[in-house]
Here is the input.
Amino acid sequence: MKKIQILGIGCPKCKTLTAHAEQAAKELGIEYQIEKVQDINEIISFGVMSTPALAVDGQVRVAGKIPSVEEIKAML
Here is the structure.
């Protein structure tokens, strides 16, 4: 099972990123779990300075922008 983490404080961009990640995982037919990381200290511990950010299995894949569903599929 893939662990998809959305790092951000719950802004509209974070919600869009969450929707894109869920859509990408569903289209790929993989089992996944979405976790929202909203604690600023935890976000910084990932080395992320700009949100929203996407981490897959604990590894930051993108920060500071919203990738497309197709881009997220490639990351998964």
